[in-house]
Write a structure and sequence with these properties.
Layout (H helix, E strand, L loop, with lengths): L6 E7 L5 H10 L1 H10 L8 E3 L2 H4 L2 H5 L9 E7 L5 H14 L2 E8 L2 H11 L10 H9 L10 H12 L1 H20 L5 E6 L4 E3 L8
Parallel strand pairs: 1-3, 1-4, 2-3, 4-5
Antiparallel strand pairs: 5-6
Helix pairs in contact: 1-2, 8-9
């Protein structure tokens, strides 16, 4: 199925905001799929599948006969803090030009919850009683078990360990920056979703401040 016949649902947000979890729920939980898709004015009876922007803009890969390529609604992750975010933005623009329709679901996670998730992934426990050497390693480490955050994500985490206010400002600035980018694409319908409460916003609280 060509890109011109697909509805694209881009689920965007920072690392650890719940993009993968939401996509998994849409694919595995019919009730959740109906809730999300109906709110986005998408036909719940259409087939869904997780794809990447790279695949969607690669005509050779998209022409291959596979169940993945034949989905009518393509679910796409877009990490706004990824080291590859500029390349993904170019692919996003190409998809906007060619797809049947494109919808953008922006996931909002309150900063304190996001920071808690990032610290958990990096095995960092704030205020824990550790030896000076262990504390220093934990403070500066990007974690273990394969956790390798992008420079942008880790710079926000590190800034917050010196100043929560500075980290939160940097975090919010990324949402504002990307919202200004999304607005440029007037044909793309934007929706906002609270990944903690599991419900839609008219606009997230971050934009009311």
């Amino acid at each position: 199925m060509s890109l011109s016949h697909k509805h694209i649902l881009v689920i965007a947000g920072p690392s650890a905001c719940g993009k993968s979890t939401l996509i998994r729920e849409i694919l595995e939980d019919r009730h959740m799929a109906n809730k999300i898709l109906s709110n986005l004015d998408l036909d719940c009876s259409l087939s869904c599948g997780k794809l990447t922007l790279q695949r969607l803009v690669d005509s050779k890969k998209l022409r291959k006969k596979s169940r993945k390529n034949n989905v009518e609604i393509a679910l796409i992750q877009f990490d706004i803090l990824s080291r590859y975010r500029k390349a993904r933005a170019l692919e996003f623009e190409e998809v906007v030009r060619s797809a049947k329709s494109v919808r953008l679901l922006i996931l909002y996670t309150p900063f304190q919850e996001w920071l808690k998730r990032m610290n958990r992934r990096s095995n960092y426990i704030s205020g824990a009683r550790l030896s000076p050497l262990s504390a220093c390693k934990g403070f500066l480490s990007a974690g273990s078990k394969g956790f390798r955050p992008s420079y942008k994500a880790w710079s926000i985490v590190m800034a917050s360990r010196f100043s929560k206010e500075l980290g939160e400002k940097m975090y919010k600035d990324e949402y504002f920056r990307w919202d200004n980018y999304w607005i440029q694409h007037s044909v793309v319908s934007r929706f906002y979703f609270d990944s903690c409460l599991g419900d839609f916003f008219a606009t997230p609280p971050i934009f009311d401040q």
